[in-house]
Structure formats: structure tokens, C-alpha cells
Amino acid sequence: NAGVTQTPKFQVLKTGQSMTLQCAQDMNHNSMYWYRQDPGMGLRLIYYSASEGTTDKGEVPNGYNVSRLNKREFSLRLESAAPSQTSVYFCASSEGTDSSYEQYFGPGTRLTVT
Amino acid sequence: LAKTTQPISMDSYEGQEVNITCSHNNIATNDYITWYQQFPSQGPRFIIQGYKTKVTNEVASLFIPADRKSSTLSLPRVSLSDTAVYYCLVGDPIKAAGNKLTFGGGTRVLVKP
């Protein structure tokens, strides 16, 4: 039981390049999330998926797209990377029920855009 | 969406009890209070969640007064490994996905020997 896994762990992009961050969970969770965390700051929600087949915007969605490929996988795509997107990206999942607010986080992807 | 306010940082010593208070004056009826812990270079980890009064688990206690406008996370007998950032989160689990999930700046707790 690996929990939430993310790939890659590190990535350096040039301005204008594109890339996809991958996330997978093996806990049969309904909901999945993508956050970014800038240095010394709290996490900000980019996009979320309440259940398989649905996605919605969070607090800072501009410049990103997501795909809920199946119940296990939720990917985040940067179509044209900008230096302002330099950050650590965390994927998380939760049961999505009304009895638990507990989210399980992956180890993060450290992205630098030059 | 309930805004939360917590101290930016706190220092403590090994073996002491650490209490972190979070203010959430506009908490809604259906909102729960949740605390997360984050170590450097790691994702946050769920610590405890509560709605009212007191909740205790193996690592912490959460005290919530009757008006629910604040809450206090209590870490008993901290060790050096409890040095981390602690986040207070207020939201409605039924509508948990998306905009209700907002992490503030957190409280940096430094435990000294």
C-alpha cells in the first residue's frame, strides 16, 4: 500500500515548455486534489476532483489543466510554463465522505521554471 | 469560507506541552476544525479533527469552546521531532472538495533541546 505517489520528484523547465505531473493513489479514494506551495507559504488549491469523471477549479487554477484519468489517477498539466509557476506541487486524496476531512498527501514535485 | 488566524511561530522545549490557538470568528454551522502537521520537504499530515468540545487521539488534543470561534491544538510533552509547521483548517466535510479547503500560513513550532 503505497498511499499517494507522485512523479517526477524534481523537474526543471524553461519558460514556455509544457509538462504533466502524475499522481496516483491506491486507497480507493473518491476525491483527489492538486495544491501548490510557494516557499514559506501555506498550500493553495489548484484543482480538485470530487469523484471519478469530475473536476473543478480551486483557488489558483490559471495556467493549469487537470485530467481525472480513472479513480486512481489525477494528472496536472502545465501547457506553457512560467517562472511564477516555480513551486512545490502536492497531490492529495481523500475518501470524500461527510465523516472525514482527512486528506493523504504525496511527497511532492519540486518544479523550477527558468 | 471561514478565515483562520494563528500565530506565525512558537518556540518550546523538549518535554513541554505546546498549545496553538486558531481563531475562526466566522465559522459556519456545518464546519469542522482540522489540524495538519508538515515537516520540511514533505506533504502535510492529518493530526486531528473536531466539531465541538474536546477530541483526543494518540498524538494530540483539540479543545473547542462552546462558541466555536477558536480552537486550541495541544501537543503533550513535545520532542525535537515535533518541530514542524502546524496548519488550522476550517471547512464543511460534506462540501469538502475544492474551495472549502484552505490552508493558511500555519504556525512554525520549534522545539529546542
Describe this structure in words.
The complex is a heterodimer of chains A (114) and B (113). In chain A, 0% of the residues lie in helices and 49% in strands. Chain A has 114 residues and is mainly β. In chain A, strands 2, 4, 5, 6, 9, 10 and 11 form a seven-stranded mixed beta sheet that branches. Chain A has a four-stranded antiparallel beta sheet with strand order 1-3-8-7, with no helix packed on it. In chain A, strand 7 and strand 8 form a beta hairpin. The N and C termini of chain A lie far apart (36 Å). The mean pLDDT of chain A is 92. With 113 residues, chain B is an all-beta fold. Chain B is built from no helices and nine strands. Chain B has a five-stranded mixed beta sheet, with no helix packed on it. At the A-B interface, strand 4, strand 5, strand 6, strand 9 and strand 10 of A face strand 4 and strand 8 of B.
Order of helices and strands of chain B: EEEEEEEEE
* Ends distance of chain A: 36 Å
The number of helical runs of chain B is: 0
Order of helices and strands of chain A: EEEEEEEEEEE
Task: Give a quick account of the main beta sheet of chain B: strands, pairing sense, barrel closure.
Answer: 5 strands, mixed
Q: What quaternary form is this?
A: heterodimer
Task: Supply the helix-strand structural class of chain A.
Answer: mainly beta
Strand content of chain B: over 45%
Low-confidence stretches of chain B: none
| Span of the ends, CA to CA of chain B | 39 Å
Helix content of chain B: under 10%
Number of strands of chain A: 11
Q: What's the SSE blueprint?
A:
The complex is a heterodimer of chains A (114) and B (113).
Chain A (H helix, E strand, L loop, with lengths): L3 E4 L2 E4 L5 E7 L5 E7 L5 E7 L6 E2 L6 E5 L5 E5 L8 E8 L9 E2 L3 E5 L1
Parallel strand pairs in A: 2-11
Antiparallel strand pairs in A: 1-3, 3-8, 4-5, 4-9, 5-6, 7-8, 9-10, 9-11
Chain B lengths: L8 E5 L4 E6 L8 E7 L6 E6 L2 E4 L4 E4 L5 E6 L8 E8 L15 E6 L1
Parallel strand pairs in B: 1-9
Antiparallel strand pairs in B: 2-7, 3-4, 3-8, 5-6, 6-7, 8-9
